[in-house]
Amino acid sequence: MFRNYKFWFKAGAWALIVTALLHSLSLIKAPTGENDTERQMLERCVEVLAGHLDLPLARIWLLNPKDNVLELQASAGPLTHLGADSGRIPIGEFQIGLLVKGPGPEHGPAHDFSAAGSEPTWSGHLTWAPGEGITAFAGLPLLLGDMLVGVVGLYCRRPPHDETLELLRQLTGSIALGVKRLRAESELRARADFEKHLLGIVSHDLRNPLNAILLSATTLASSEGLDALAAKIVLRIQSSADRAARMISDLLDFTQARLGGGIRITRRPVDLHEIIRGVLDEIEAAHPGRAIRTRLDGNGHGEWDSDRIAQVVQNVVTNALKYSPQDTVVQLVTATERGWVSFSVHNRGAPIPAERMPSLFEPLLRGTAEVDRTGRSIGLGLYIVKQIAEAHGGRVLVRSNESEGTIFTILLPR
What we know:
The structure is a single chain. The chain is of the alpha+beta class. It has helices spanning 5-10, 14-29, 38-52, 94-97, 162-222, 228-259, 272-286, 306-322, 381-391; strands at 57-64, 69-76, 88-90, 136-144, 147-156, 268-271, 291-296, 301-304, 329-337, 340-347, 395-401, 405-413. The longest helix has 61 residues, at 162-222. The chain is elongated. The N and C termini lie far apart (67 Å).
């Protein structure tokens, strides 16, 4: 494009060059893909610059503040194979390194070097350039405020016009913002992954000492000769350890679902009605003052993971008891239809606020603003319920309003 630059400018075709560069700007500003890396984004940038400006070579270096060097990240154009010594350029050396002064926030543009009309004095990494017809070099720092991110280097066969350099400065600002955004996203992902791994490790390592506490408390509770106070203390230890075990189990399920590609299940022929009866016996023993009414209709047989389905029933019914008045009845009803089995749990508590419905099954959140004063929940119950249902190929539906109360329905294919 610059090869016939004077003709383009005199013919009034500068608008076409501006249009092409503005199109380049929109491409660079476009949102990056979910798995896009910093290097991939920079490679697209130099391809856009080299293509629209008809450059034999365009490169981007990023600053390594620890070693105080610029490291080559992306290169595009017919001459990308040249200049192998340009991979790491110390600050203050060669044309690229001279664009910046020193490490830290004081980094700033020393100059945009371009040779107009006469061949520049090539040194260092540019000694090969004259033999390839390169007669001009433009270097532009990538800046965020006064902070240096890197440098863009453009190798030209004709000196770029001032208007071109000004527009290129806008492009370098967009590239710098893109680098900043990708680094921030990468840092957030790394932090989230670390937290998930930490949760899994801590939860797993807590199980052994907690199991020892539970075993000891169970043994003491069954021994004879305990006075009333000692028996009460042992039961309190046992209850607290049971609660902690459930929380750890939820945390392990959470990390498995998020890091392991979903909760694993083992299918075998079971009867849903038997699973429900067994779970309700345990729940009723733990909540002697509450009424749970059941209606188990149809054929409850299917191939599911009985332990996981029991976990779903436990979570949903316990939630229904927790968020409904003591004098109300919780209802559990099963139904069958065309290869599907479902069970619904209905309570007459306050409805779930409409604004909380979209995030109801998100981890570490609850459906109401009510604080769990019993300390029995860490906000993973419904998330795990949904994960288990989906692992079976099923789904979870919820309906909640003032007139009906709240109904959770779990649908499972046989």
